[in-house]
Amino acid sequence: MQNKRNMKFVFTPFPQNNKGFTFVSLLFGLAILLMVLPCVGIFYQSIDMGNHYQEQAVRLTFQFLADQSEQSVGVRVKGNNLFFESEEGSVISVSQYGGVLRRQVSGEGHEILLRDISDFSLKQLQSGLSITIVMAGGDQYEKKIRYP
To answer: What are the residue ranges spanned by the domains of the chain?
Structure first.
C-alpha cells in the first residue's frame, strides 16, 4: 500500500526567493525617472509638428486643375485666367479674385478653390501649362500640367 495521504487542498509551494522589491530599488527607479522626465519635455519641443494645411490645399488645387483639364474638350489661357471648355458647352474659368483663387461656370457662381494667395500666374507651354501660385506668406508653388 502507498504511504501517501489524501489532502483536502491542492497546494503548489512557491520557491523561496529572498530577492524582493526593496525601498532602495524604489528610490533608485524614482531617481532615474526624475532625471529622464525633464529631457522628455525638451525633446518634445524640438520636434517640428508644423501645420501643412496650406501645402495640402495647394496640392489639392493643382490636382483639381489637372483633373479638370483631362475632362475638358479644350483649354485656353488668357492673361492670368484659365478657361476649360466642357463637353456640355459650358466654359469653366479659374482666376484670381482678390486674395482667393475662384472657379466660375459660364461666368456664374463663386467657388473658392484656394485662399490667401498673393499671385496666380499661368504660362502656356508647348505640351501643356505651367501654373504658379504665390501664397500670402511668400511660399511659391509651381505645377506643370500636360494636356493633349
So the answer is: 53-146
- Rounded to 5 degrees, what are φ and ψ at 56? -65, -35
- Which residues partner with 104 through β-bridges? 93
CA-wise closest residue to 117 among 48, 68, 66, 54: 54
Report the pLDDT averaged over residues 21-25.
81
Strand duo 117-124 + 128-135: pairing: antiparallel
The gap from C-alpha 70 to its chain's centroid, in whole angstroms, comes to 25
Positive/negative CA dihedral, 85, 86, 89, 92: negative
First and final C-alpha spacing in the chain? 101
Amino acid at 148: P
Q: Is the pTM of this model over 0.90?
A: no
- Among candidate residues 90, 82, 86, 144, the one with its CA nearest the CA of residue 114: 82
- CA 44/CA 10 separation, integer angstroms: 53
pLDDT for 44-89, tens place per residue? 887 776 678 899 999 999 999 999 999 999 899 998 899 999 989 9
